[in-house]
Specification:
- It is built from 14 helices and no strands.
- It has about 350 residues and is mostly helical.
- About 70% of the residues lie in helices and about 0% in strands.
- About 30% of the residues are buried.
- The protein is flat and about 75 Å long.
């Protein structure tokens, strides 16, 4: 009886003739850029044919076409699952562009119009003896007032906000902590004019003090405190509990653990939160109008007499309505933006310097 000889080679499974949904061809890498170019061209063409005058409408049409074309192309060439993923990515990019374009437009307009009169003379002179509708004058008195008022407000609000956040995260328990959290949330939404009226009623009317940069700084500190508290609180919560436990296990007191371990670990986020608060108060005008009054002269004493500030200066120059006053207003706006940017750079440098060193 004969026996069939078996083939010792393993039998390989046959490949399916039709590719499945995970192995089909994909769009090339340049496809998103190409689709974006086509979408912009179609958006401009549709906007021009339809007679739409606003470039914003053209951009919105192009953004919508970008998402639709991306989904259609991915569905045909790839699969519906990949198409949904690409649509999600496209929406993220569209939202990013919609957020960046107004910012870049604002910076471009401010720089292009502010550089007309921004020079050394403008930064070193005040508006003394210069009528609002005449050329000349400078922003020195307003810049000096803003620097003093912001520094005073930061000196008041930053320590109070930092200590409040430390209490809420490290010590706060029970009804008191809940009450503090509630009032911090309420203070976050306080309008600036309300803070100005509060200081005007207590400091100026009840205690009898006159207008000064310090009065404006106290109102700005009220606006700054809840931002510092909330941002610092979130940064302290991100510090791993293992670091606290390791320090406490070595016998280090809790207050020293907070000072030497917790705060240095979170110093980067804390400084960023403080700068966000500074950026908010640097552009406030209503409290300054109520409490500082504004002045065309240089007053380097923030505790006595009326002062000016950059936001108030911008409003005063815009109110005049002449071409020269508009140029001064745009130049002051550029100085204000540069002031906030410099403060952010300084804060980041300090945070990097004080942050714990990593690596070997």
């Amino acid at each position: 009886m004969s026996h069939a000889i078996q083939d010792p080679r393993p039998v390989r499974p046959r490949k399916s003739a039709a590719p499945d949904s995970l192995t089909r061809g994909g769009l090339p890498r340049w496809a998103p850029a190409g689709i974006a170019v086509v979408s912009v061209a179609l958006g401009v063409g549709i906007g021009a044919v339809a007679g739409l005058q606003s470039k914003v409408q053209w951009g919105l049409i192009a953004a919508l076409l970008f998402v639709l074309i991306t989904y259609t192309a991915s569905s045909v060439i790839e699969n519906r699952r990949q198409a949904k993923d690409r649509v999600a990515t496209s929406v993220v990019w569209v939202c990013f562009v919609l957020a960046v374009v107004p910012l870049l437009s604002l910076i471009w307009v401010t720089v292009s119009r502010g550089l007309k009169v921004l020079d050394g003379y403008f930064l070193s002179h005040s508006m003394k003896g210069v009528a609002g509708f005449e050329p000349g004058g400078g922003v020195y008195h307003a810049l000096l007032g803003t620097i003093e008022q912001v520094l005073l407000a930061t000196a008041i609000a930053a320590p109070i906000g930092l200590l409040t956040a430390v209490y809420l995260v490290e010590y706060g328990r029970g009804s008191l902590a809940k009450a503090v959290t509630f009032f911090v949330d309420v203070m976050t939404g306080i309008p600036s004019i309300v803070a100005g009226l509060f200081i005007l009623t207590t400091w100026n009317l009840m205690l009898g003090f006159g207008p000064s940069g310090f009065a404006g700084a106290m109102a700005l500190a009220i606006l700054m405190m809840p931002v510092v508290v909330r941002s610092t609180e979130e940064m302290l919560k991100l510090v791993p509990n293992e670091l606290r436990e390791a320090s406490l296990a070595l016998g280090v007191p809790k207050w020293r653990t907070i000072m030497k371990v917790v705060l240095p670990t979170a110093i980067g986020g804390i400084s960023t939160g403080v700068m966000l608060a500074v950026a908010r108060i640097a552009g406030e005008t209503a409290p300054i109008m109520l409490l500082v009054f504004g002045s065309q002269l240089i007053n380097d004493n923030p505790f006595e007499g009326a002062q000016s500030s950059l936001p108030l200066y911008i409003w005063e120059q815009y109110k005049v309505g002449s071409a020269d006053s508009y140029d001064r207003a745009w130049a002051a706006a550029l100085v204000l933006i540069a002031f906030v940017m410099i403060l952010n750079l300084v804060a980041r440098g300090i945070a990097r310097w004080k942050a714990p060193k990593t690596g070997r």
